[in-house]
């Protein structure tokens, strides 16, 4: 909970009307999603102006509004307004960021920032879950990882929280630095540098430069937690003003993973080596690719004073549905819903998991976006691996046709490969072609909306 006084101090805004006090329970930027007690922040968009929806936000229970201008014809914009407080600022976007930084600095808590090309959300969730075994933790949810979303996540902090675990996304150089200056992280985690965002950034080195901004912004008392198995990430250690912790499979990593074993949908197990001590770790989450995320969580936990025994034990109770959701599907099939997003690295990892399934293996793969110069090669790599794994391949989108072409060229029978332009076409083909004991992997970039396919073929529980 934060107060009207906090908002005025944090934003430097001007109060309109006669309200003297108010309490807020969160922040909303869409009048349709306002909850009782929210502070509604009005943004000017390309199609809609949030200032025209302030009244609707109040009607839904908003306790106040942050605005940039005062429309002449609305009662809340007049000096005599005696309803919910309205705070006028020069820029609501900048004001929200200023308020979030102010609010973060009002609390004595440890902030963990997580970024990287692939696996940010999974790593954030694992870190938060492990730390929650000892600390009171707040974590950014859903897509609250941008210059608007991250401040909204920070405004969820209250006096009960000891740790905030925040995901940081970017599209260009400078954006991670801006987020880090809002959140002021004590621990910075970088998962990897891969071929995402090349459409904007042009090269892997530029991607690395952008991701390294979180490390450069750490204080001398901060800790950089870096993937030792990614050379570009490992090199970021030279940019850290404070401590550096390398995790991975490399011989100098600590914590380090050995003897990794994937048990299909039952989860994974591996040995963890820390300061000469070797412990066995198990997780209910599926996919060997999760080992790096687990090691990052262990590294953060160790940096915050947890024992290796407690941290490893915490992995065992982590919710298995991190990003991959396994649900019953149409006609007795099993759906591996990994539709949230996709890159070549993550699709290859998902195909590796699908390869462990005993039954007919079906993959629905959509376009992978923002790959820039790596677009064709990335889709071809996925097509080659799909030919080794699947019995039936359905691709969605123009770019994914390259996956289909490469799968045929790599030996998958032509009759086992189909391409579609729309999700409804895919749904129809699956509903007519799926059978009992099929395993169906669904994965594509978020813009492809393949969650529509997953939802259409899942069986309601």
Describe this structure in words.
With 461 residues, the chain is of the alpha/beta class. 33% of the residues lie in helices and 21% in strands. Helix 4 packs across helix 12. The protein starts with a strand and ends with a helix. The relative contact order is 0.09. The model has no long low-confidence stretch (mean pLDDT 95).
Task: Give a quick precis of the structure.
The protein is α/β, with parallel strands linked by helices and 461 residues long.
> Any idea what the radius of gyration is?
24 Å
Shape: globular
Report helical residue fraction.
25-40%
Strand order of the largest sheet: 9-10-8-11-12-13
Please work out how many helical segments DSSP would assign: 17
Note the gap between the termini.
36 Å
CATH 4th-level superfamily of the largest domain = Mur-like, catalytic domain
**CATH C-level category of the largest domain:** Alpha Beta
Counted beta strands: 22
CATH architecture term of the largest domain: 3-Layer(aba) Sandwich
- Which secondary-structure class do the elements indicate? alpha/beta
Question: How many structural domains in the coordinates?
Answer: 3
Strand portion: 15-25%
Uncertain segments are: none
Main sheet record = 6 strands, parallel
Question: What name is given to the CATH topology of the largest domain?
Answer: UDP-N-acetylmuramoyl-L-alanine:D-glutamate ligase
Average the pLDDT over all residues and give the rounded result. Answer: 95
